[in-house]
Amino acid sequence: MPDGETATPSRRAMLGLAACAARSAAFGYAPIARAEPAAGGLGALAAAKGLMFGASFAVQELDKPTGALYAEIYRRDAAIITTEIELKLHELRRRPGPIDFSGSDRFFDFATANGLLARGHTLIWHDYLPAWIKALPPKEAGALLEDHVAQVMRRYRGRAHSYDVVNEPIAPWDRLPDNLRAGPFLSALGEHYITRSFELARAADPGARLVLNEAQMEAETPRGLEFRASFLALLKRLKARGTPIDAIGFQSHLAAGTAYDFRRFADYIAGIADLGYDIYLTELDVDDHLLSGDIARRDDHVARLYRAYLGAVLKVPAVKLLTLWQLADSASWLQHLTGPTRRRPARPLLYDAEFVRKPAWHAVAEALLDMPAR
Ligand code: G3I
Whose CA is nearest to atom 33 of ligand 1? Predict the structure, then answer.
């Protein structure tokens, strides 16, 4: 807490909360009138309960005219940041030859300079691959995997809190055995590519927490339930082989209009935790593209979805990390999706285009205030 800040909320903070509450109430969303964190923001609220809080971070946002505002909300609200694109194969290895670490170095340097922990996303993924890697014969793809995991993690040894070592291993639409996702690394090593990646990661940086990260399991839909079943079966096979996984990442990309039963989902993640894993919620955002009505109504609905989801999953003691997929609407990946229902700017996150807190920020703050301590 900065010098001079009192432990009890300052009059300014309370007035700030009252103003926010009034504004939020105008949306029909009346946050619990509690002490807005006088100093540390959402990261401090989370830390008080033993939870790591942050968001993905894109260094290229720093180069925009709003770069200073962008950096400021992370300093205020985040305790940890995740590489959104800087550590992906397409960014590191656009062409054969030496790895281009310029973007990832800039990310880790920002984290260090601002006292933030760093998450590396993601070492091995089927997507966002340069064409030359997609074209590799299986044997060479296997050799690349061996070299890549070791090189990247050795470079940042001791500087990363955790890595999404493998991302999104399940894809029912690929119609492969066990619903595994197609890709050059599966073609090279079969399912063993996952265990091998984690073994290399453990050897390269024993101090980093190693995460298997997956999407699409939050929904109470046939697809969501299929993902949960396939992922649990995969995890049991990986565990039986002694794969060194420390935590399971649930991406948590929610969408207004999707069917959810967050209590049942919380039971599922508690069951995963019972296998001996920490739970990380790694890419939380709320897609509002199917919502109708004005901004106030959409923001209110988004806030309620954040509140409902976090109210359920933060009850699970094994949930140790919560990171959103950006903090500000303008930086969301959802701005780049197109389609007949996506003609308006997306409003999935906690700060609007002017970097002003939205009702969703207050919903997350309330969920953190209400959650049981780890
Ligand atoms: O940086 C280039 C820019 O120079 C160029 O002008 C522009 C237009 O071609 O592209 C820019 O690169 C884009 C990059 O994001 C940075 O904005 C890539 O085309 C685009 O494909 C890339 O999308 C990212 C996507 O992963 C693929 O890496 C999204 O930002 C990122 O949010 C998204 O994140 C994924 C997670 O890794 C896994 N879970 C799902 C999540 C959302 O799809």
Answer: 333
